[in-house]
Amino acid sequence: MPQSTLRKFDYPQSLIKSYHHWYLLLRPDQPTLGSMVLVCKENVHHYSGISTEAADEQKHIISDIERILKHRFDCHKVNYLMLMMVDPAVHFHIIPRYEFPTEFCGKEFSDKQWPKAPSLIDHLQLDAIFKAELLKTLKSDFAAIEPSNKQSSNKMYRRMYTSGCFDIFHQGHLNILKSTKALCDYLIVGVSTDELIEQSKGRPPIIPFEERISILEANRYVDEVIPQIDKDKQKVVDEYQIDAISVGSDWKGKYPEVSCEMVYFDYTPNVSSTVLKQKLNITPKQTDK
After folding, report:
1. What is the rounded distance in angstroms from the CA atom of residue 188 to the CA atom of residue 243?
2. pTM for this one?
3. CA 272, CA 267: separation in Å to the nearest integer?
4. Bridge partners, 96 (sequence order)
5. Which residues in 49-90 belong to E strands, given as ranges?
6. Is residue 72, in this structure, part of any structural domain at all?
């Protein structure tokens, strides 16, 4: 995982969508409205080094990007800049181009460099609230795209969400993922960041965030993995168009109120991260959720 490049562009806070082989991020500095960064998850420093699977997926992602930018902002062209000098991981700067001013949230924005090459030095002056709304809008737009290989399904839900620390992945985690996927077409899993775990538990996780993300992404029941940077579940429901959330049965009556349905599963007996850590003499007895 290209950690330094991701951090440079404010990952995980800036994540729009996590694909199988790529991360799509909102670019912190906006040369034009809707600028993004597409970062390959593979540990390669040359474009020729990416896998065939990553190259094939990139074609579909570019199609998603261009369709959404045209629909949302009516952009006229999209520039793709591949620099890889200061940040060596394979990534592209995605710069929408506008022949005419475009409007978003009551403000009008112009592409001052049109039709010349874009400038990465100059950028739009956007406050934190506006950037948050831009990120939320793009997350929702990309979440609405149906997979190209989607087949008709009789499952109860279209999109479900579950989350956790996943600090030492075990059979109980697997059972919840498997049971949740049996109910839905698309399963999104939130993985708590190291910072959130330390804030809520008073200690860092045993397994670093990047490794825990990779473990979940490799699971065949999981369609998309996103960072859980806070405990605002309703925000996830809104941004990712979630129909139902699954959680352990011990959360009945205690889970934060959300607008979607809730599905409760019984925990696998005698299996938890806390039990495993106690057996390994890693941590004192405490709730691992």
Report:
1. 11
2. 0.87
3. 8
4. 78
5. 77-81
6. yes
Q: For residue 50, give the CATH number of its domain.
A: 3.30.428.10
Do residues 89 and 213 share a domain? no
Q: How far apart are CA 227 and CA 25, in angstroms?
A: 12
For residue 149, being part of any structural domain is answered with: no
Domain limit, last residue, from 121, 143, 165 = 143
pLDDT tens, N- to C-terminus, the chain (289 residues): 688 899 999 999 999 999 999 999 999 999 999 999 999 999 999 999 999 999 999 999 999 999 999 999 999 999 999 988 888 899 999 999 999 999 999 999 999 999 999 999 989 999 999 999 999 999 999 999 876 656 667 899 999 999 999 998 988 899 999 999 999 999 999 999 999 999 998 999 999 999 999 999 999 999 999 999 999 999 999 999 999 999 999 889 999 999 999 999 987 766 555 555 555 565 554 444 4
- Tell me, yes or no, whether 261 and 169 share the same domain: yes
Find, among 226, 168, 156, the residue nearest to 192 by Cα. 226
Which CATH number is 231's domain given? 3.40.50.620
Q: Would you say 40 and 24 are in contact if contact means Cβ atoms under 8 Å apart?
A: no
